[in-house]
Automatic annotation (TrEMBL):
Subcellular location: Endoplasmic reticulum membrane
Organism ancestry: Eukaryota, Viridiplantae, Streptophyta, Embryophyta, Tracheophyta
UniProt record similarity statement: Belongs to the nicastrin family.
Pfam families recorded: Nicastrin
InterPro entries hit by this protein: EF_Hand_1_Ca_BS, Nicalin
Record-linked PANTHER family: NICALIN (PTHR31826)
GO cellular component: endoplasmic reticulum membrane
Transmembrane portions of the chain: 520-544
Keywords: Endoplasmic reticulum, Glycoprotein, Membrane, Signal, Transmembrane, Transmembrane helix
Membrane topology summary: Single-pass membrane protein
Protein known as: Nicalin
Main location: endoplasmic reticulum
Amino acid sequence: MAPRKPREREMLLESVIALIFIFVACVDLCDGATVVDVYRLIQYDMSGVPFGSRLASLNHHAASLHFSPHVDLSRTVLLIPLRELNMSFVKEYIAESKPLGGLIFLLPRMFSFENKDGMGSNHQDESKELLKNALDELEQILIHANLPYPVYFAFEDDNIDAVLTDIKKNDVTGQPATATTGGYKFVVSAPEPKKVVSPPITNIQGWLAGLKTDDDAHQLPTIAIVASYDTFGAAPALSVGSDSNGSGIVALLEVARLFSLLYSNPKTRGQYNLLFGLTSGGPYNYNGTHKWLRSFDQRLRESIDYAICLDSIGSWENELWIHVSKPPENAFIKKIHEDFSRVAEELGFKVNLKHKKINISNPRVAWEHEQFSRLRVTAATLSELSTAPELLGKTGGLVDGRHFVNEAAIVRSVKLIAESLARHIYGHQGKNIQIFADNSNLAVNPSYVQSWLDVLSQTPRVAPFLSKGDPFVMALKKELEDHTDEVNLHRDVLDGMFTFYDSTRAKLNIYQVASVTFDLLLLLVLGSYLIVLFSFLVITTRGLDDLISLFRRPPSRKVKTA
């Protein structure tokens, strides 16, 4: 009997240890429901004033908009679908700085740049337009607010929709999710956001030299075609800017391709140099354009006949706008407008002219051409927008996705630009001559437009988060090298009033948490089971007397007296 006792004790010890591990694992009873990709609201400072979401980590219970009135939400994350968005609620909580544990906005899949499905049937267009307008308003509210809690965006899917349904059911009962009542817990493990030190900006420049009349081609007049390529939005990891300014980039690349065909043959090479510029820092008063122009030598700057800047030309129907800083009566401005208007009339639409005088003392730069105008270079911006957007507005935000851009509009814009430039270069103004006629070797290529639009519509490109050797920047450089000469990069640092912080995307872990009441009940059951198991093992191995002796009071020791 004696040799069995060590083995029995070992079995008893192993059973107890195993049960303890089971108990510890079950007491929290956090069942991992799902893991979701989330995208953080931008965090930045403007002139030292903080804006955006100031925190990244998250560890709170979840609730929906159906929470009970007067409930404390300081340790609660609200999961709000865009389809159910109550704008008054959002404005109230932000304006009055009411405490929240966090916000997660649930967006329809159509706003995801990974969504390759079509927009759907026409009868849904109205509801989609309403959602687009609501998201646009929400984005502007969020990027201009200082929010002392984490704010994230996520996209609808079956898993998170099921979680939201359960959360709503719990909220309808009037019991918010807490450690006492249970529910769902949202956890984002993220480091404290850090400042982006010396955010880089990279300008890309290409050149098509005109027909030389002497040894120095730079003595020829130059036309500059320019487009800003970076974006800004509420969620940097989602800011693809298909229209603003993906459409402008695509148009510039296609114009470069078309003129490279003309300029490759000395017989059709014009007596104008063509300068192509893809600039960075557009949302921040066109800081990159400013630095790029300052890098020009004086002869190049003085040789520029005019510059045409392309901005948001992918969502229009019947009219475009040419924005200028010089008065419409100016001979150069009048000629630019006439050239574009004649071609537009032939193509079946209208080009309007809009003058906005610039204030040199005001640092705000509304249009890219204004950076040229400040250096006394004639310039204009071609855009579908009739008025200049506000600072950080319409710069490639959440609503500026692939499904809201019309490829045909970009193709028509390219025809307008290329034909107007060609007639100016070759002296065909006023003549109904189509140099880039359809079905010719010089026709605009819709497939080329579509392919680059698809690439841009899947590439977030907020300048402070693009590295110096970013693959996207290198891809633009290579594409420009295929069509132009002397392509080079102009690198600098974004300066001025903006400071940015990292941590733009994360993983959201959703746990289903049991209530404390259930934990106590589980504790009671497991405790009783352990006592019964322990008693059974002692009785079978050592006998009932030994079990009773464990609970019997030991006899007191008497002190022997002499």
